[in-house]
Amino acid sequence: MAKKSEAELPEPPNGFSFGNFIQGTKEELEKVVWPSRQQIVSESAAVLLMVALSASLIYLVDGLFAWAAKQVF
Asked: Where is this protein found (predicted)?
């Protein structure tokens, strides 16, 4: 595959252009596949359930170690 000559490559813009930034941001946001409300609720519930289960497990293991420490010391 032949390389493009430097004349064919677009020149990068000099500096920062707020207008180009906003336009590029809008173009990228149009490409995003947004989740449905049902999907958001379902995944949020799953996350909350896993956090609650993890916190409960940590609490129980901490209690076990505290009990074991009291028995030893």
From this structure: Cell inner membrane; Cellular thylakoid membrane; Membrane
Kindly report, residue by residue over 44-59, the tens digit of the pLDDT: 999 999 999 999 999 9
pTM of the model: 0.57
- Report d(CA 21, CA 5) in Å as an integer: 27
Sign of CA dihedral 50, 52, 53, 58: positive
H helices of 1-73, in order, are: 18-31, 37-72
List all residues 6 or more positions away from 51 whose beta carbon is below 8 Å from its beta carbon.
Answer: none
Residue boundaries of the structural domains of the chain: 36-73
Rounded to whole angstroms, the Cα distance separating 3 from 25 reads 30
Cα(46)–Cα(42) distance, integer angstroms: 6
